[in-house]
Amino acid sequence: MTARSLPDPVDALVAAARTENAPTAAQHQAVLQLLELWLARRGLSPADLDDVCAEAVLRLVRVAKAGELDPERPPGAWLRVVADHLALDVLRRNKRRSGGELSEALSDPRAGDRLAALLDSSAAATDVERALRLSGDANDHEAVRAVASWLSLAEADGEAPSTRQVGERLGVSHMTVQRALRRFGERLSQ
């Protein structure tokens, strides 16, 4: 197992898919659980997490049955890439909002939880997408994760989460979330 691949249950699922016998429910479940652990911190809602995992496993089985997996590469790595792309697609779709004064609010270092409260409704979708792209280009994955998690929590709960809630979800301090949102706000105003 490499750092970029998942452990043996993925190999077992692929091996079963390549034979005339269909993979078992237990094999599917083992891979789904691994994917859920992998994607748990991506900021997806529980329903989106289930959908992304199921779709990624379905695609893996389809590709394995068709003999289209590269035998030189671990199938777990392929699965992780597909799952990451599906999760990113869902996060992009979920963050589409409208409005306009987010960057100003995010520039205030004392704004704390108010910073996050504006994220849901005050930024135009194209501005948020551009700022997320800039954050990704700058390898500021912390900012991307903070924004994605905040949006996911806001959608799931129907209200603006605190930076402390986002921090708990990501396993970081609320101050780390505040700094990440501030950097995101700076990119939003570029």
Strand count, sense and barrel status of the largest sheet are: none
Helix content: 55-70%
- What count of structural domains? 2
Total number of helices: 10
Task: Give unreliable regions as ranges.
Answer: 97-118
Structural class: mainly alpha
Strand content: under 5%
Write the layout of secondary structure elements.
Blueprint: H1 8-18, H2 25-39, H3 46-65, H4 75-94, H5 102-106, H6 113-119, H7 125-137, H8 141-157, H9 163-170, H10 174-188
Helix pairs in contact: 1-2, 1-3, 2-3, 3-4, 7-10, 8-9, 8-10, 9-10
What can be said about this structure in brief?
With 190 residues, the chain is mainly α. Helix content is 69%, strand content 0%.
How is this structure best described in words?
This protein is an all-alpha fold and 190 residues long. It folds into two domains: 87 residues, Orthogonal Bundle (Rna Polymerase Sigma Factor, Chain: A), CATH 1.10.1740; 87 residues, no CATH class. It is built from ten helices and no strands. Helix 2 crosses helix 3 and helix 3 runs antiparallel to helix 4. The chain is elongated, with a radius of gyration of 19 Å.
What descriptive keywords fit this protein?
190 residues; mainly alpha; Rna Polymerase Sigma Factor, Chain: A
